[in-house]
Amino acid sequence: MPYNGSGIFVRLYNWVTDRANNIDVSADRTDAEMDGMATGLSTCITKDGQQTITNDIPWANHKITGLKTGTVRTDAANVGQVQDSVAQWSGTTGGTANAITVSTSPAITAYAAGQVVRFTATNNNTGATTIAWSGLTAKAAQWGGAAMVGGEIVTGRTYEAIYDGTNFQVMGITTATPSFGDMITQTSTDAGAGAAPTLEQYRNSASPAASDIIGNWKLTGQNSTPAKVTYADIQGQIIDPTAASEDSAWNFQTMVAGTLATRMSVAQGTYMAGATGGDKGAGTINATGIYANGNQISVAPGITGWLMSAISGNSTTASITISAGRGSDSTGAVSLSVTGGTWLVSNGNAINGYQGGTTLPNGSTIHMFAVFGTSGSGYFASLSATAPTLPSGYTFFVRIGSFNTTGAGAPIPFTEIETEGGAVICYLTTQVQDISTSALTTSRTLFTLNVPSGIRVEPKMRIVSSTNAVLVLFTSPDETDVAPSNALSAPQFDIQGGSTSASVFTGTLTTNTSGQIGARSNTSSTALGGTTRGWKDWRR
């Protein structure tokens, strides 16, 4: 053998030694030596590639330099190819959105677990997705170990797919929810007062618009099918994207009877789905019902504040100042709060104006309301005591008082004082004699007073009779008509007449909705005089 197994070429003969030993040069010895050299040269690697390597070559910690770029799977790779990931880089994808094809150079000839291919997506996927590499059979693409559902692959983004022996596990996805363990913990060692740690979700949209849902947190689970179901969802929503006046809302969704829908939203205030009017402003809660221990709580009827003052002007310039107040609306279901303001007839059929226009009617009762709705709050006047037609954008109302106008349409001024239960006592600036007769009979006579009509009030009066020895009984028109008597049993009487010793009635009485009270004497031709000082309005 020309080599000794350690790479050392071994000659058969030493010619110097042969000369010393008187061994002549012979053809057979020369042929043997040359044959050994020929074998040695044939065993060497030729630079032009004629030889085929027959065994592993130990490089003894030396480099192969100037190595050409490999082009087929059996070629050696140089450092440049490794750094450039040439064998894993596909460039942009082919195929379709949900059937992706990738190609690398050199091409792979078979799939093997652990293979990696990187690519830039050409399309957004819309459902279950497959990847086929170098023309081989397509394999399912998964995210977090589960089949894709759409939205995971986004045009222009770069991804890495690892073949796990069955499917491609795709890395680099940022549009879908990743799978984690049972608990995620963010820890900050910041000892300052700043907020830390922070979890941010950024909707980087170039065209934000009102009603955009900019992110959500879904809580999913299985149903009985089994199938994956979203049982709860918290959404962030843009209400107004205008710079420096941005508004937003949190929407809380739950699954009810198989339907996922928003049940509660938090913006300026908190409001429930189905509550009329939506967001009622800062510090408010708008709901269709409130319960305590299973029992529905109704808004207690009643009023506080909303007092009228500075009543002035004529039929076209009438003005009234109204103080702030709060109370339940006309249905007792909604609580209203309205700041103080000025009511003007000149505002016409609009907020802080009069339903009938810019002129108050002559000799009429005007009813004042506090109103509230999606357009805000304020005051509104109407001839109706119970059903005003409110301006657009206003839904809830409560009557806060009433006043009369003169024969020329000017508001009749009075001083208003709040009393028990939100009621008010209104003292006329100028008292009016509403009863003046010398012909009261034994039948009930109705007298119309200068008090509001359309509602029942308690008139504040002084009534006297100058007819000697008569008995007079005052009743509400809503009461049963009975004759006065001086018996110890009912109905008895209210005043006894006389020229020098007459009694004066200042008691409690209620008008009907026409602003009337009744009076009846025990004899005919009874003289009766009465002055209206004002009235008590329960504001119900």
Give structural attributes.
540 residues, mainly beta, 5 domains, nine-stranded mixed beta sheet, six-stranded mixed beta sheet, 3 helices, 5% helix
Provide a descriptive summary of the structure in words.
This protein has 540 residues and is mainly beta. It has five domains: 1-62, no CATH class; 89-171, no CATH class; 213-297, no CATH class; 303-412, no CATH class; 425-537, Jelly Rolls (Sandwich), CATH 2.60.120. Helices cover 5% and strands 37% of the residues. It is built from three helices and 36 strands. It has helices at residues 15-20, 27-43, 79-83, and strands at 89-92, 94-95, 99-102, 116-120, 129-133, 139-143, 146-147, 158-163, 168-171, 213-222, 228-240, 247-256, 259-266, 270-272, 285-286, 290-292, 295-297, 303-305, 308-312, 319-322, 325-328, 335-338, 341-344, 353-354, 365-373, 376-382, 396-404, 414-418, 424-440, 445-448, 458-464, 471-475, 495-496, 504-505, 516-521, 526-537. The strands form eight sheets. Strands 1, 2, 3, 4, 5, 6, 7, 8 and 9 form a nine-stranded mixed β-sheet that branches. A six-stranded mixed β-sheet has the order 10-11-12-13-14-15, with no helix packed on it. The protein has a five-stranded antiparallel β-sheet with strand order 28-29-36-31-34, with no helix packed on it. β13 and β14 (270-272) form a beta hairpin. The N and C termini lie far apart (125 Å). The mean pLDDT is 91.
The CATH topology of the largest domain is: Jelly Rolls
Please give the CATH class of the largest domain.
Mainly Beta
Percent of residues in beta strands: 35-45%
Number of helical segments with 4 or more residues = 3
Largest sheet: 9 strands, mixed
Q: Quick check: average pLDDT?
A: 91
Question: Which CATH architecture of the largest domain?
Answer: Sandwich
What does the overall shape look like? rod-shaped
Oligomer: single chain
Helix/strand structural class: mainly beta
Work out the helicity level: under 10%
Residue windows where pLDDT falls under 50 for at least 5 positions: none
> Rg from C-alpha positions?
50 Å
C-alpha termini separation: 125 Å
How many separate domains? 5
